[in-house]
Design a protein that fits this description.
The complex is a heterodimer.
Chain A: H1 2-30, H2 37-49, H3 53-77, H4 84-122, H5 125-131, H6 136-174, H7 179-189, H8 192-219, H9 225-256
Helix pairs in contact in A: 1-6, 1-8, 2-6, 3-4, 3-6, 4-6, 4-7, 4-8, 4-9, 6-8, 8-9
Chain B: E1 3-14, E2 17-28, E3 32-36, H1 43-50, E4 58-63, E5 66-67, H2 73-80, E6 83-86, H3 98-109, H4 114-127, H5 143-154, E7 161-165, H6 173-189, E8 193-198, H7 201-207, E9 210-215, E10 218-223, H8 225-230, H9 234-241, H10 257-262
Parallel strand pairs in B: 3-8, 3-9, 6-7, 7-8
Antiparallel strand pairs in B: 1-2, 1-4, 4-5, 9-10
The chains are: A mainly alpha, B alpha/beta.
The structure holds adenosine-5'-triphosphate and magnesium ion.
């Protein structure tokens, strides 16, 4: 009986959290766009996007290099090392670009967003905004949400591009795969709609989900040191799980059923 | 004189715990009303209730006759433009300079030129003695300075109602004197309505037109400072004289100390 009550309570809690999260999202998305918000959004794009560039570039480079290395050792046995280009490019564009970028983004920018908003709550900055008749959803949350949604897909593209160059570096410059075939087979295999666009759509979805979770966890955090640290952890855990789960669903929809 | 705020049989609970049990009070337009009471009694809570950040469990709070708890969000935000609150913690925005903090409400709610804003901000900073600190970040201020900067921000738009949560805490005698004078001046010159929450009995009694003393979920005394001083209520006298022993408990509700230590 007690277990049942507990289950009921935790289910209710989950639903009410979902309700609050939707409220935060709608409040941010629906808030009347103001000219004043554009500079704020640009500033946030700098903070969450531009400042994530280095980690994205370094990771993209290494992942591309590792993939070329692994791919080469497998492909060369079949004399198919010419297909290294498309292999690297397709894995990056379809999967690794959007997914790894989203995971890195959750760890680098998502956690920071949660901590920042949580601390604003703890130090009553959000309350004082409300008392100044400034809606924190519009002033604080909305610019961060848009910045995340705009930045992450771009980061994913940069990640894939750098990864392809990394693959070139290892595959062509180092292991001696023919440069012409690396590029030309890649070009003829990678399809704009099927691969590039689908990957891009994935990363828009991930961007939205990760930023939403990060912002909501901060906004909904218990305004104490423990509360904020728990919220930060939850942001990383929940958004990573959400990204991996959604990736499966999206992949099934986009590439699975033929 | 009209009541700007009317609180009518307000009950407020935090979970199971009752903070206010059916209290009523009025804040008259153009007056300075002081709210005093022991720490943890719910003074900050009262200000948040007036500001519409918390909703009463029962009872009503009216701003110019309009019920705050029943307002739509957009209406509430409109009403809040006429109020302002000095938070106990100051609550300055940590990512902006002192100058930008004070300019913030002006920039958000008006279309004044930057030049004009600069004049206003520096005047407000001058009033609290911090004109020289305009370019500092909040993290570079002392606690008392931060509170004065926050005070400057809360008067930036010359609101009709200002709620000060502990404006004097952490101030040295000189800045305390300046703040007391400032609050009085704002009230006299601009006909602002002020609510001052504080423990500093002496200071507030010198500027308040009307005083409420809270204890034990109730209003235990109210009246002009003179009436309060003359009050024959033991509770009120204990509070004014700052005695630990008396009808007002100093301790948060707990079991007997002997029971706690002897493990009975
Ligand atoms: N977020 C909260 N959740 C639960 N209880 C709270 C919360 N905030 C305050 N309380 C409780 O409400 C009571 C009133 O708090 P409040 O901050 O209004 O006191 P106060 O009179 O302003 O005290 P002080 O003079 O120390 O600032 C306190 O006893 C506190 O335990
Ligand atoms: Mg308080």
């Amino acid at each position: 009986m007690e277990a049942l009550a507990k289950l009921g309570r935790s289910t209710l809690d989950k639903f009410s959290a979902l309700g609050r999260a939707t409220f935060v999202l709608l409040g941010a998305v629906m808030s009347v766009p103001q000219l004043k918000n554009i500079p704020l959004t640009i500033k946030q794009i700098y903070v969450v996007g531009v400042q994530s560039l280095s980690i994205i570039i370094v990771s993209g480079l290494f992942i591309g290099m590792v993939m070329a290395l692994q791919g080469y050792t497998i492909l060369v046995d079949y004399g198919a090392e010419g297909s290294l280009g498309p292999m690297v490019a397709l894995s990056l564009l379809r999967e690794l670009g959007p997914v790894v970028t989203a995971l890195l983004f959750a760890g680098r920018a998502g956690s920071a967003l949660t901590a920042e908003i949580g601390l604003m709550k703890a130090t009553e900055q959000l309350s004082s905004l409300e008392m100044m008749a400034v809606d924190p959803l519009r002033r604080i949350v909305a610019p961060r949400l848009w910045a995340g949604v705009i930045s992450m897909p771009m980061l994913a593209i940069i990640f894939s591009a750098v990864g392809i160059l990394g693959g070139h570096l290892v595959g062509v410059d180092w292991l001696g795969v023919d440069a012409g075939s690396y590029w030309s087979i890649m070009q003829s295999t990678v399809e704009w709609n099927e691969d590039v666009l689908n990957g891009f759509i994935k990363s828009i979805v991930f961007a939205f989900v990760v930023t939403w979770i990060a912002i909501f966890k901060g906004y909904d955090s218990i305004p104490t040191s423990e509360g904020i640290s728990a919220a930060t952890t939850q942001t990383v855990v929940y958004s990573s799980l959400a990204v991996l789960g959604l990736d499966f669903v999206l992949t099934a929809i986009m590439f699975g059923i033929e | 004189m009209n009541n700007l705020i009317e609180i009518d049989s307000l009950t407020f609970k935090r979970g199971e715990r009752t903070i206010y049990d059916n209290i009523s009070l009025q804040i008259k337009e153009g007056q300075t009303t002081a709210v005093m009471g022991p720490s943890g009694i719910g003074k900050t809570t009262l200000l948040k209730l007036i500001g519409g950040q918390l909703s009463p469990t029962s009872g009503d709070i009216k701003f110019r006759g309009e019920s705050i708890p029943n307002m739509k969000r957009s209406r509430l935000f409109n009403v809040r433009r006429q109020m302002s609150m000095l938070f106990q913690s100051g609550a300055l925005f940590t990512d902006m300079t002192v100058f930008d903090n004070i300019a913030f409400p002006i920039r958000e709610h008006t279309n004044l030129s930057e030049e004009f804003i600069r004049t206003v901000v520096l005047m407000k900073l001058q009033a609290v003695g911090l004109r020289g600190a305009a370019d500092l970040m909040p993290s570079e201020l002392s606690g008392g300075m931060a509170r004065r900067a926050a005070l400057a921000r809360s008067i930036a738009l010359d609101p009709e109602l200002i709620m000060y949560d502990e404006p004097f805490a952490g101030q040295d005698p000189i800045s305390m004197g300046v703040l007391v004078k400032l609050i009085k001046q704002l009230n006299n010159a601009l006909k602002l309505t002020s609510v001052v929450v504080t423990h500093d009995v002496k200071e507030v009694m010198s500027i308040a037109d009307y005083v409420y003393i809270l204890a034990e979920k109730k209003i235990i005394g109210s009246g002009t400072p003179e009436e309060i001083r003359q009050s024959d209520s033991a509770l009120v006298q204990q509070f004014l004289k700052g005695q630990a022993d008396g009808p007002v408990p100093f301790h948060y509700p707990a079991k007997e100390i002997t029971a706690e230590f002897l493990g009975a």
